[in-house]
Amino acid sequence: MEKKFFQAPTxxxxxVNINVTDLGQSLEFYQHILGxxxxxxxxxxxxxxxxxxxxxxxxxxxxxxxPKQARTTGLFHFAILLPSRSDLSAFLRHIxxxxxxxxxxxxxxxxxxxxxxxxPDGNGIEVYRDRPSSEWNWSNGEVEMATxxxxxxxxxxxxxxxxxxxxxxxxxxxxxxxVSDLKTTEDFYVNGLGFDIITTYPGALxxxxxxxxxxLGLNVWNGTGIPAPPENSxxxxxxxxxxxxxxxxxxxxxxxxxxxxxxxxxxDRYAVKDPSGxxxxxxxx
Length: 285
Hints:
Blueprint: E1 12-19, H1 23-34, E2 37-41, E3 45-49, E4 55-60, E5 74-81, H2 85-98, E6 105-108, E7 112-118, E8 124-130, E9 138-139, E10 142-143, H3 152-156, E11 171-178, H4 182-192, E12 196-201, E13 204-208, E14 216-219, E15 235-243, H5 246-258, E16 263-266, E17 269-273, E18 279-284
Parallel strand pairs: 1-4, 5-8, 11-14, 15-18
Antiparallel strand pairs: 1-15, 2-3, 3-4, 5-11, 6-7, 7-8, 9-10, 12-13, 13-14, 16-17, 17-18
C-alpha cells in the first residue's frame, strides 16, 4: 500500500455507512470473518475500525428495515485495502479455513489482487492488496486493469501467518457504486467533485485523484434509469470523501452549486447526493 494515494493532496474515500437487517448477526460476520474491531456500539448501530481509533465502516439496523432491493442504485461493493500481500495471504487462508462461501470470488486486476465476498445481507465487499504503482501499466492517461484468475496458490504461499484480524494500516481503498446514468455521473464526479476518469469498462467508469488506479467505481450494470432504494433498505446510507484542506473542499462545493446540485451545509458538515441519489459526506482530513 502506498500512502501517497490516501493523503494530501488526493481526495479519497474514508468511511462507509451501510444498513443491515440484524445488527447482532452482522457483527458476528464483521468481527469474526472480516476481523474488524468495534469502536462504538448502540442497540442499532456499530462503528467498526481496524486500528482501534479510525472509523472505516458503520453498520446500522434501521427501524422497519427492508431487505436488499434489486435493480436500484447504491452499493456494489466497498473495498478494504490491506497493507501487504502477506496480509491478503493470511486473510485468504482464514477464509479457506472457515469455509466461508457467501458471494465468494477472487480476481487479479493487474494493479491489485482481490478477494470478494458478501455480508449476510448481500452487501458486497472486496478485500485487496495493491501491487506497487511502479508495476502499473499506463497508456494515454488510462491505467490497464482487467479481471483475470487470481493465483490463489501463489498468494497462499506468500506467508504462513495466521489471520489475527484487520491489521493496523488497513484503510477503505475505494467504493464501487451502482448508478443510473454514466453521462450525468461522469459530469458530476469529474466536473463537480474534481475526479479524473482513469479507465473504462463496458458500462462502468473508474475514477481517482492523484494517479491512483481508482478511488471510485461507477457502473450501470443494474440498468440505466434505475431508482434509488428506500432509505430504510439494506445497502448504502452514505460514504465520505476526505479533502486535504478547506480550500479544496470549498472549491468543490462552489463547483457543485454551479452545476445546480444541492449541498447540505450544517456548521462544518457538508453533504451532497450524486445524480443517482448516492449520499456523500465531504469531510476534511
